[in-house]
Amino acid sequence: MMSWETVIGLEIHAQLATRSKIFSSAATAYGAAPNAQANLVDLGYPGVLPVLNREAVRMAVKFGLAVGAQISPRSIFARKNYFYPDLPKGYQISQYETPVVGKGQLQILLEDGTLKTIGITRAHLEEDAGKSLHEDFHGLTGIDLNRAGTPLLEIVSEPDMRSAKEAVAYMKKIHTLVRYLEICDGNMQEGSFRCDANVSVRPVGQEKFGTRCEIKNLNSFRYIEKAINYEVARQIEELEAGRKIKQETRLFDPDKGETRSLRSKEEANDYRYFPDPDLLPVVIEKDFIDSVRATLPELPDQKAARYTEKFGLSAYDAGVLTASREMGDYYEAVLAALQARNLEGNEKLAANWVMGELSAALNKDNIEVTQSRIDAKRLAGLLARIADATISGKIAKEVFESMWAENQDADAIIEAKGLKQITDTGAIDKTIDEVMAANPKQLADYRSGKDKLFGFFVGQVMKVTGGKANPAQVNDLLKKKLAG
Amino acid sequence: MSLTRHDVENIAQLARLALTEEQLPVYVDSLSKIFDFVAQLNAADTSTVEPMAHPLADQVQRMRPDEVLDSDQHAKYQRNAPRVEADLYLVPQVIE
Amino acid sequence: MTELHHLTLAQLNEGLRARRFSSVELARHFLGRIERLNPALNALITVTGEQALAQAQRADELLAAGEATSVLAGLPLIHKDIFCTDGVLTTCGSRMLSNFVAPYDATIVERLSQAGVVMLGKANMDEFAMGSSNETSWYGPVKNPWDLKKVPGGSSGGSAAAVAARLAPVATATDTGGSIRQPAALTGLTGFKPTYGRVSRYGMIAFASSLDQAGTLTYTAKDAAMVLRDMAGFDPRDSTSVDTPVPDYLAELDQPLTGLKIGLVKEFFEGGLEESTANLIREALRVYERMGAKLIEVSLPNLPLSVPTYYVVAPAECSSNLSRFDGVRFGYRCENPKNLEDMYKRSRGEGFGAEVKRRIMTGTYVLSAGYYDAYYLRAQKVRRLITDDFARAFQQVDVLMGPTSPTPAFDIGAKVDDPITMYLNDIYTIGANLAGLPAMSVPCGKVTMGDTSLPVGLQIIGPHFAEAKLLNVAHGYQNETLWHRDIPKGYE
Hints:
The complex is a heterotrimer.
Chain A: E1 4-15, E2 52-53, H1 54-66, E3 74-75, E4 78-81, E5 91-94, E6 104-109, E7 115-127, E8 131-137, E9 140-144, E10 151-157, H2 164-180, E11 193-203, E12 213-218, H3 221-240, E13 249-253, E14 258-261, E15 274-275, E16 282-283, H4 286-293, H5 300-311, H6 315-321, H7 325-340, H8 347-365, H9 376-387, H10 393-406, H11 410-417, H12 425-438, H13 440-447, H14 454-464, H15 471-483
Parallel strand pairs in A: 12-13
Antiparallel strand pairs in A: 1-10, 1-11, 3-16, 4-5, 4-15, 6-7, 7-10, 8-9, 11-12, 13-14
Helix pairs in contact in A: 1-4, 2-3, 5-6, 7-8, 7-9, 9-10, 12-14, 12-15, 14-15
Chain B: H1 5-14, H2 23-38, E1 63-64, H3 74-78, E2 84-85, E3 88-92
Antiparallel strand pairs in B: 2-3
Helix pairs in contact in B: 1-2
Chain C: H1 9-17, H2 23-41, E1 44-47, H3 49-64, E2 76-80, H4 107-114, E3 118-123, H5 157-164, E4 170-175, H6 181-187, E5 190-193, E6 213-218, H7 221-231, E7 261-265, H8 275-290, E8 294-298, H9 306-321, H10 340-351, H11 354-367, H12 372-396, E9 399-403, H13 419-423, H14 430-435, E10 439-449, E11 452-461, H15 467-480
Helix pairs in contact in C: 2-3, 7-15, 9-11, 9-12
Subunit structure (chain B): Heterotrimer of A, B and C subunits.
Protein name (chain B): Aspartyl/glutamyl-tRNA(Asn/Gln) amidotransferase subunit C
Family (chain B): Belongs to the GatC family.
């Protein structure tokens, strides 16, 4: 039985978050009434001409700098010619031979905790097409051109990924990055972030790549994984049956979990690329690059490194907390609020709560961290009460739930519900005495060597105090008293 | 250079042009003559010449500020459309 | 008695300012001539009488109030039907756009209308500006007022015939390979093509984007200078529009021509030039010598390759520019399409005429896989060789001169079946488009053939942005000669 190696390269399309289109001054906002945002340029009206949006170029450069890529000092827009009803001019303005962003790279974290470098071949600017709506208009298709002309950054990777999981990790990494850079909203349902996957397999040890298939328009991380896994299995099955892989474009059907051959858009794709004579060479000066560089935020990898070095977080935790810019911002806002209360040194506690209770609550309500019902300052208020031993971690969870539901400060809830921890030794002593008196048999057993019953006594004390007794103190005192 | 009928059919397909039976041989003939004519270009020594896409060599692409300047004009723009319904341009079914 | 249609724009402007006549009277006069004379010429596709009178009325009000700043205020004009005009049929001479009402004004339409110009109508033209005889128009051929059996040249044949027949004192036009200069030569007018990038292309329906440039057809160089001042200038909507100030072309007109260095292009006197035309060009050059100019022979060795270069570059660009005509958002759609493919192919097959289809196919082929390097890339390289030839010549001389067209106007139908022969009409004009140079044609005599005599044009080419110099050189000649005052018989 031959063993196979999977080879994957991704072409990610990220819609750039400009206000207006790449070559026209129409709005790019999602969800407008059909064709309300398609102006004369977007419609490809006779006589109109494209003019390049500076912001789109700025965003592309920002991405290039973030992946350590060469920015082309002179790049060219070319026309990709083909007929399709959602492509108004009969050509797409794209970049062919000289893209704005050249070779770059980034690192992904593999499941085994090691890092892998994925090469980025290039990233180029182009315009998005409109949408064909296949609802039935008496057997006709409706065309909405609002999306036509929305700026896209097409990010092309090297064929460096060796499994669907790696492809997803890479896609997520780019997703995180473009949102950090604030160049794409990353909304996959709305199609702002999508990819085509080039998949092939080859016998392990063979250097030459196998014939690849391109799976078009994948717009969720789950679909990417499923589609690639299906496609890999299909290709191996074909090859093992002695058949050849046909280079083609395939579509993923999420309902069936299968890829299927897309009847080729053009019998023979001959796009007849040539330099767009309506646009001149884009010259990017050093000053422009420097001004963009000055706007670069701390990137996720830099931030994660800071978390592990300064806060002592694990690489995994740092990765989770920096997976989105908003999550990192929230976490650091919690730390800042703790610091304002002179409670430094609680970075791990804060990390555990943000990744644990908070993330679970966000997931449950299906909201983003920016919409959290407990803001960073309030969460810090709760953590402060754990840090100063006013409440136990267990009680804190209860308080958290109330805070989430009732929109109140931790202190108000602790006060109202009387959840303050009992740390008065005398009071705890008294309770222990009562518990021992009420359970003479268990006491005798314990003293005759049944150590396991220690837990029973802890439980009884906590029950009587309603969980408010300081657990560490209860442990210490019980040990002494039970010993007699 | 002599184009065949098949060549012209392929070009017409790529350009999405329906040609009639009468037009086809006329194009086979005239396009062949045109490509013979432009073959004169082979006489020039272009080995060290950079291609020229624009007549003004020093001009570079200007970039405009990212501003929205348009309002919804679809009704006006769609007056020229052969077929519109529910503000959408209608075309024969697109099959994916 | 001098009639209104004998007056140049400059004279009409003076008359308006002196209240000798009103803009409304002017508009009525020319609309009357259009109604009477156009049917035989077929120079106009659309006449916008009502709008013209309303515009003229407004211009009169501005003139009366002393608020008309432009010298063009109140003057009538015809636009080539390649320019989009808001709310007015804009056909580009094609069945494809036979129902197309532009929803916006081209930049030059907007600028001229702001200057107070009165649009009388839209001129016939070769379909999508592809032609040299105005025989490819869906609206039928335009006749040359000098001889109705002859073509007026193309593609701006309607503009040229209209101005030559004095249906308007000026018409806009466009020039991709000679489409202003050649019709100017064939109808005895002054045709001016500015430097590429000098006049905005926004709203001018594209044929070949890297070659197209808008200009004028007028009686005189002075009139061209007047109109160009308001047409030219930077347009932020056109990325290829050049952001340099527009000089006052009128101010430079009367500079003396003593010491002017004129380059006689050797290659301009080859390539099928008729002897009678050549003689008239030599005659014109002697006029310049008398004015103190020096003649210097120069060579543009790659110029003979300009026609084949053009017939790769222009079709390549047009094949892509015309892809937007697909029957979806505007323009012609075939009846009862069977499916999407059928809709595309029949809408385009039926909507475009034979020459347009030929050029789309030529362009599709030269850009297609396997042929790009051999044709398109090579043509772009030869284009640079030709451009460099011009640049070298302009190190020695101020302007270049030669014939505009190898022959005077030819018979309608004489060349329609032979595209190569037709393409060679532009042998002297195409070079300026490839290099993006300003160029013009001025009438320099007539050749007599039987009982008709037909005009011949002298071509003047200058370096980039030398518009003022060209107009000065042409104006000097027109001060010494009367050819620009000739009016065809029956149109006096």
